[in-house]
Amino acid sequence: MTNSHHSLYDTLLRYMPQGYVEFKVIYDDASEPVDYEFFEVNPAFEKIMKGKRKHFIGKKVSSALKDFEYSEREWMIQVARVVSDGGTVTFEHYSRRNKCWFEMSVFSQRTGFVSVMFHDITPHVQENNALKQLVNVSHRFVSTGSDLLMNQQFLDQIRDFTGAKAVALNLMEEDGESYTTVALSGMDEMLEKSLDILGFHPVGRKWPMTDQRRDLFKQSNPLVFDGIDPLIDGALPKRLVKNLLRIFSLGEVVLFKIEQDGVLYGDLTIVMEQGKQANRLGLVELYLVHVLQQLTKADHQVGETKKSMFDGFGTLDLECIMAFNTRQVLHLNETWERVLGFSLDELENIDFLSLIHPDDEVITEAGFAELEERGELFRFVNRFRTIDDTYRSIEWHCKLQEGYIYAIAKDVTDRVQLEEKLADRDRLLTKLSDQIPGAIYQFELLPDGSFNFPFFSRGFEDMLGISAEEVQTDASLVFRRMHPDDYPLVMQSIDESYRNLTIWDAEFRLLTKDGRTIWILGSSRPEKIAEDHVLWHGYIGDVTEKKTYEKEIEYLSYHDQLTGIKNRRYFEEALERYDDEHFYPLTLIVIDINGLKLTNDAFGHLVGDQLLVEAANILRNKLRTKDEVARVGGDEFVVISPNTTLDEAKQLSDRLGRLFHEQTVEGLPISASFGEAVKYDSNVELAEVFNLAEDRMYHHKVSEKQSRRHHSIQIIMRTLYEKIPREEAHSQRVANLAGKLAEAMGFTSAEVNEIRTAAILHDIGKVAISNEILDKPGTLTESEWYEIKRHPEISYNILSTVPEYVALSEIVLAHHERWDGKGYPKGLQDFEIPLASRIIAIADTFDVMVTGRPYRQAKTIDEALAIIKQEAGKQFDPSLVDVFFEKVVPTLQQ
């Protein structure tokens, strides 16, 4: 490398944002990589590993990585594979040390060295997870409802001045047998983690009022505990409590009862960080006075309402009792004076109904008729004259009982005037609502159980294929379109929203008019019109495409794309789930499929993929029901076996090994190396168990590697002969000719045998070339010739995997090189070509000419010899041609 190029190289390494490290490979006596020495690192790598350059350069990985997290050792496994198998490996890796995702590229630029690049892809991964997070946020909002929004600021203030980790507000249910967590401060830090990590939703959750908790509440305020255990009392699984304590470092708990006159309304629970005490608890008690005032005020209002015979209407303004037949007013409350300006005496001495606007007399009579028929009248509006001759709009809610009208009303003049002013805008909004994707609607459920859709936009019609007129006639048509499996859940969610006045949110399937099934996402907010009368305002949209995408994303995120079994991400999450005493002893079996690179080189990557698929099928179908399996690397699988001893795991490994060997791909039996390790209790980290299983697998792999690969070569040769029968005879003839020429050159018997063996194996790479090309009778195309010319390199790749064949692989690689440098694959010339390769080249070419090929007619021996002589100094070593004619050709003529 020139100085200018070296300077540019250094500059790139120094300023590139990706981390870069180059290792020098350390080999043992058997030429196997045993360790790696840091040779070069760039500043970005120092930043990633949080260490200085001097701490790495010249150090061995085996010692340098002792201080690293387990996750940093994971990518070193990929380094070892590149050194062993060659090529480039790119994969995603999560670093627990850095709390971020990297895209790792492992490759070798020069012999004896291997490089690794780190590219931070955390933003990309976070973007891919955005949809899942959005669903969590939506679910959390629906679960908490309005109570959280009403009480959040109050709890935030308490958390702020007490220094608490979290503050929760719990309110008793009417039955006194349970209580509900209605709000939680500290949501950003705690609830988000509990949702994502533990699947635990505290807000909106109802808890049983246990005897232990009742006993605790007999004590005086405040109640102070060392931890949350006294408050749990079996309400949560022990494993969940253990994880909560471990993740959030929870400490002292201070509990204030919200109680007055012997009535328990709930409690305020303050949770501190471990090692800290709460501040300003006296101020908390003052805040509770405010809470009690609000709660007792609500109770007081309900009591007044019942005494006034207006059950369910206590929050409205105007009261009126009227005889139905005579229309005589029997009672008005004082609020009417403020609304109409007349005194109560004046209102009682005039005809009350004479104050109705003349234009509203007809609708008022119609209202009386509806009230007589139904016994109830809701949301009826007419106008009444005031003392200054203006008119106020009054909205009525009426019940007819035993000849008397009991009515509650409110002044809605401002609302009506606003509605009139916005009439044009409403028409515009209606037009817009008809144009947006999805549909806007109102759904009404009446006290008698009947329902209807007061409004829905055109998108509703387009989606369902049902017109507004049809729905107005029979609203149940909408529900008949629901998928039968989803209908019960939708009705249950509507009932829950109806009873609790919580936001309705559901995802369900609809059957369209043309027979399609679509996914619908619906959401609406309920409005209580009167007792047992609720109106929802909402939106629905077609989310079929999104649902399909979600399912694909969910499947791909936890499944290996090639084999269909679970992937590494699932495996890592499953480890956390299984790391529990309930599953001990917990066994991990690491399985590495042997010879994948050899299979790829010999038969192509499609066959290599098939090898992995067949192995995965055996694991999927033959494991026990309780076992889980995942593909965690290119050729590596892991089995998680709960409640399994080491002996049982070894028996399972033996059984799987036999099943693998019985299954062949392209004549090759599936071979695998196994390693088992067991976790018996919580004293050992599961990461250490995985490392031990992997170490045992590698030990078995190394001890079996030589005999296995030698056997694989024999199987590949047998496969080649079955695929191309003429190759067996061709190989033998070339070996005989090459042996004779080697003997004529004065080679030793050992050297002659080596050349004969190389000649036997010289075309082993043709096993990866299709028969359509090898047996094509016509002229080969340029692309077909390119495939033919690949076979020396394929032969080299296959043979070089077996140490005793490494020397032969070099001979085979060069047997199509030419003396004049115009051969392939490297374009070597004259003495750059190994002597054994030059000998085999003459024998191979001669035999091909005299026996012919599908695309070339056979020549006579004399014609072939003439070409050999003609090519001396061009294709062939001229001195070898001389010896060939002098000592080998006479034996042919005999």
Automatic annotation (TrEMBL):
Entry's EC annotation: 2.7.7.65
The keyword Protease appears for this protein: no
SUPFAM superfamilies attached to this UniProt entry: HD-domain/PDEase-like (SSF109604), Nucleotide cyclase (SSF55073), PYP-like sensor domain (PAS domain) (SSF55785)
Molecular function terms, GO-annotated: diguanylate cyclase activity
Ranges of residues in domain PAC: 504-555
Ranges for domain HD: 727-849
Pfam name, any one: PAS_9
Keywords: Nucleotidyltransferase, Transferase
Residue stretches making up the HD-GYP domain: 705-894
PAS domain residues: 329-360, 455-501
All residue ranges annotated as the GGDEF domain in the record: 584-713
Database matches in NCBIfam families: GGDEF, HDIG, sensory_box
Protein name: Diguanylate cyclase
Taxonomic source organism: Exiguobacterium profundum
Taxonomic lineage from the root: Bacteria, Bacillati, Bacillota, Bacilli, Bacillales
